[in-house]
Amino acid sequence: MDCRDELRFEGPRARKPIALPSELYSFCEEGPFQACSACCRSLGDGGLYQVQKVIRGKEVIFEMAICEACAQGLCCEFSEESLQAIKGFLLSSFKPSPETCHCHFCGFPRPLLSGYTLVGTCSSRFLVVPTILLCDRCGEQLQARISNKTREVQEDFVRSTFPGVPADMDVSPTFGGIL
Asked: Which of 85, 101, 116, 142 is exposed most, by the fewest CB atoms within 10 A?
């Protein structure tokens, strides 16, 4: 997708809601996510939820939408050390931009990435903040900062919520409700 075609972030004073971009639609559902991937609660009630899509090459290999309650529950299981490490990573590395033409942490151009994760914070059919693109290299740096306990929590969440995901596939929730 050409970045010029992407919906632009209009800032906190925007009067018009920002429509959910199609790159955050569910590949499996062929449209916006309808329900939380963890608890099956409807996402159309106006509450916050987070979409995460893992892309390798041009293929979506994993996707999920997680409601605010499930994300907070997951986040509460993270170690304090990991929460501080994630916060530190975001504060030190995040480079805000309304476009997903590059990694929002290292700036590497999207067309040159072999893999990345898209993260969007949404409400109903609207984007609350611009989509974040995290390249695999930066994702590995983030994962290297978290504790073993938190890594186990992430792995348990993926195994219990998505039983068909191969054990060796790294699709750990990127921020796990932090955003």
From this structure: 101
